[in-house]
Amino acid sequence: MAHDEKPTRTCIGCRTRRTASALVRFKVLGGKLVVEGRKLLPGRGAWLCPSQDCLSRAVRSRGFPRALRQDVLVPDRAALWSDICSRVESLRQ
Length: 93
Ligand SMILES: [Zn+2]
Prior knowledge:
The chain is α+β, with helices and mostly antiparallel strands. The protein has a single domain (8-92), classed as 2-Layer Sandwich (Hypothetical Cytosolic Protein, Chain: A), CATH 3.30.1230.10. The protein has helices at 52-60, 63-68, 77-92, and strands at 8-10, 17-19, 24-29, 32-35, 46-48. Strand 3 (24-29) and strand 4 form a beta hairpin. It binds zinc ion. Zinc ion is lined by residues 11, 13-14, 16, 49, 51, 54.
């Protein structure tokens, strides 16, 4: 691997490998799925393209509990999507 190669992660929706910075990371906090903030928390995360398609697929295929290796309360898809949007917004600033 080249030294300057960017780390890649697999989206749990479409299963595509992309650079980590192009994806949104999710964590379990108190048993509930949350979008991770700017500062990465330690532990296992689930990665997703900031796309409604990928979110739908991930929810349908139970990609979150699989990626996080634990049961997790997945919030309403609309609520999750708005969290993803504000996360993406904050990254642009
Ligand atoms: Zn994806």
